[in-house]
């Protein structure tokens, strides 16, 4: 078990941060909703091996997820996650360049951080990767269904999340997660999935508190940080998405790449929402390329299909 670092947030929540390697450049990995730092286990191992002493990798457990502490329901939102990202940088990487990598909720937290702390973002951040995420909340979330049915399911899901949030820090759902395996497989994975990746996803969801599973949902739905994209205009940007993503579909990238024409968009065929687990080597390659660009070198642009 990785010993990790501990970060104390502005409201007293203790965050767990797994640390790999050392170097002048810090890479901060932010996982998605209901997941934890284990989402990046392939990337942390491979990036640490590739970059050695040139880069330090930090994989954060967001509040209420994994091995981090839970907060009050009123503090379970994107605003607090932005403050938490600020706390991680202030306590773990106060100086030197930083590359921010956000998957799903983690990408939203990153954009909220840029919005709330623009001076700090521009001072330290030299590269950004937005993985299976959006700048427009649940605007384009239809679960791969017909638009009218997607809107109905979204309403039911949002109301159900409010009930789950009443469960507080409890994780009683962990016992029933194996029974939900087929639903999880359909919702967050694409055409192919390895059994190990599916089991890890079930384990991560089971480790998230009910308050986090339900509490973040309203904030995610309302999120709109298109304004924050302008702060990414001067740094290398990677936008990664699967063409079978039912939660943050390819349409979510349109506004992002429109605002950031220099961003490199990669669409992964047959993949869903869990790109770091579904195509780990390709994600690692994309991040490695970004890290190399984020070091003081020239910057490239373009779009590719993987």
Q: Quick recap of the structure?
A:
The protein has twelve helices and nine strands. By secondary structure, the protein is an alpha/beta fold. The protein has a nine-stranded mixed beta sheet, sandwiched between helices.
Structural commentary:
It contains twelve helices and nine strands. It has a single domain (5-305), classed as 3-Layer(aba) Sandwich (Rossmann fold), CATH 3.40.50. The protein has 306 residues and is of the alpha/beta class. It has a nine-stranded mixed β-sheet with strand order 1-2-4-3-5-6-7-8-9, with helices on both faces. Helix content is 41%, strand content 16%. The model is unreliable at 298-306 (pLDDT under 50). The chain starts with a strand and ends with a strand. The chain has helices spanning 41-51, 78-92, 105-116, 118-124, 147-165, 181-188, 195-207, 210-215, 217-222, 252-259, 275-278, 280-294; strands spanning 5-8, 14-20, 25-30, 55-60, 98-103, 125-131, 237-242, 264-268, 304-305. It holds the Pfam family Abhydrolase_6. Keywords: Hydrolase.
Structural features:
306 residues; alpha/beta; Rossmann fold; 9-stranded mixed beta sheet; 12 helices; 9 strands; 41% helix; globular; disordered C terminus; hydrolase activity; AB_hydrolase_fold; AB_hydrolase_1
Output the CATH class name: Alpha Beta
Q: Give a short account of the largest sheet.
A: 9 strands, mixed
What shape does the CA trace take?
globular
Low-pLDDT runs of 5+ residues are: 298-306
Question: Which topology does CATH recognise?
Answer: Rossmann fold
CATH architecture term:
3-Layer(aba) Sandwich
* SSE order: EEEHEHEHHEHHHHHEHEHHE
* Helicity level: 40-55%
Structural class: alpha/beta
| Record field, number of beta strands | 9
| Assigned CATH superfamily | Alpha/Beta hydrolase fold, catalytic domain
Tell me the domain tally.
1
- Span of the ends, CA to CA: 34 Å
Radius of gyration: 18 Å
């Amino acid at each position: 078990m990785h010993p990790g670092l501990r970060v104390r947030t502005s409201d007293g929540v203790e965050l767990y941060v797994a640390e790999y390697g050392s170097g002048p450049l810090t890479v901060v990995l932010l996982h998605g909703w209901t997941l934890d730092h284990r989402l990046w286990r392939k990337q942390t191992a491979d990036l640490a091996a590739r970059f050695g002493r040139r880069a330090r990798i930090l994989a954060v457990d967001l509040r209420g997820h994994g091995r981090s502490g839970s907060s009050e329901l009123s503090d379970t939102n994107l605003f607090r996650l932005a403050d938490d990202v600020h706390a991680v940088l202030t306590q773990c990487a106060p100086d030197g360049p930083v590359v921010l990598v956000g998957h799903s909720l983690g990408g939203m937290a990153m954009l909220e951080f840029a919005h709330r702390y623009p001076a700090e973002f521009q001072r330290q951040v030299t590269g950004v990767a937005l993985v299976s995420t959006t700048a427009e909340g649940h605007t384009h979330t239809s679960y791969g269904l017909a638009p009218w049915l997607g809107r109905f399911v979204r309403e039911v899901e949002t109301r159900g999340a409010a009930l789950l949030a009443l469960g507080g820090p409890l994780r009683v759902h962990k016992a029933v997660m194996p029974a939900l395996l087929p639903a999880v497989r359909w919702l967050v994975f694409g055409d192919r999935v390895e059994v190990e990746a599916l089991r890890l996803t079930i384990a991560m969801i089971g480790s998230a508190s009910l308050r986090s599973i339900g509490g973040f949902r309203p904030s995610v739905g309302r999120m709109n940080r298109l304004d924050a994209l302008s702060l990414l205009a001067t740094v290398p940007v990677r936008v990664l998405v699967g063409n079978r993503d039912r939660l943050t579909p390819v349409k979510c990238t349109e506004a992002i790449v429109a605002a950031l024409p220099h961003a490199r968009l990669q669409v992964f065929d047959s993949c869903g929402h869990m790109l770091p687990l579904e195509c780990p080597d390709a994600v690692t390659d994309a991040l490695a390329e970004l890290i190399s660009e984020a070091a003081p070198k020239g910057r490239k642009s373009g779009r590719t299909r993987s």
